[in-house]
Amino acid sequence: MSTGASPTVHDETVSIRGVDLYSRIVGDGPDVIVLHGGPGAHHDYLLPQYDRLAAGRRLRYYDQRGGGRSPVGRDVPVRWEEHVADLAALIDHWAMAPATLLGYSWGGLLSLLCAIHHPGRVGRLALVAPASITAAGRAEFERRFEERMRSSEVRERRARLQASGLKERDPEAYRRRTFALSVAPYFADLDRAGDLTPFRVTARTQQEVWHSLGAYDLTEDVARLSLPALVVHGRHDPLPLSSSELTARLLRARLEVLEHSGHAPHVEETPRFAAVLDGFLPQAR
Question: pTM for the complete prediction?
């Protein structure tokens, strides 16, 4: 991976389709749009690890409508169709077509939806722990997550935290520990959950996106795509490996399995994660 001075960083707000979308732009070189998960989250929890990919390229993060620093009124729709249309409009605004998309979790599914509905705007896909391309796969992911949340280890850690008196002694430390426990099932090593940058999810946005997708099944649509693609999956992700195997097979893409990661390989195997993506994403030479 390229090394050198710290990449340049600047923020901007892009007004499109009646909403203001916050964007953070890092580095110089070929453009890559980075799509966070959720839905309804924001890009912060991809940092600082994703910034390692800014060597020799320009990363364009943005907070999707209805999350983070891109809030919208309750009367503004936040269905999957709006998210896809926003992404297509951003690609046009930044004059990037055909764009390289780097999508994490829900952002991976959003990338695929954009490629399906706007094929001329998407030229390359890098999908990290992508959400399932079927509603059944998503339901299995949720079942496994809840099963891990109910595990004896997580319950014991929660009980120890509640009995520790930390809430009274150091409320901020207690808040951080509580957050780490809320995301622990995503991780192969529960102790690494505290290394994930804290984030919030806007419930209305999350619920409206999944409700609008309904009993979705994108297998036939994904199989019709023809573009360079990479799929990255953590061996211990509550999202079944079979989900990413299916996505990679339909895309005729390379599947890279990170053996010591869960759903956040950028946290648990940062060097390996960065090396795999660095070898696939366009880069100034």
Answer: 0.95
pLDDT digits (tens, 9 = 90+) for 214-267: 999 999 999 999 999 999 999 999 999 999 999 999 999 999 999 999 999 999
| CA–CA distances in Å: residue 163 to residues 14, 47, 76, 181, 190 | 47, 32, 43, 15, 19
Sign of CA dihedral 226, 122, 50, 277: positive
Cβ–Cβ < 8 Å for 42, 270: no
Q: Please report which helix (H) or strand (E) contains residue 137, including its range.
A: helix 135-149
* Distance (Å, whole) CA 162 – CA 285: 52
Question: What residues does 218 pair with on adjacent strands?
Answer: none
Nearest to 47 by CA among 28, 68, 65, 29: 68
36 touches 64 (CB < 8 A): yes
Q: Which residues contact 92 (CB under 8 A, 6 or more apart)?
A: 121
CA separation for the pair 23, 131 (Å, rounded) = 23
C-alpha 29/C-alpha 177 separation (Å) is: 38
E strands along 144-221, which residues?
none
Domain boundaries, the chain: 9-142+200-278
- State the architecture of 9-142+200-278 in CATH terms: 3-Layer(aba) Sandwich (3.40)
Query: Residues 222-239, buried b or exposed e (16+ Cβ, 10 A)?
Result: beebebebbbbbbebbbb
Number of neighbours of residue 166 by Cβ within 10 angstroms: 18
CA–CA separation, 57 and 80 (whole Å): 28
265 contacts 236 by C-beta, under 8 angstroms: no
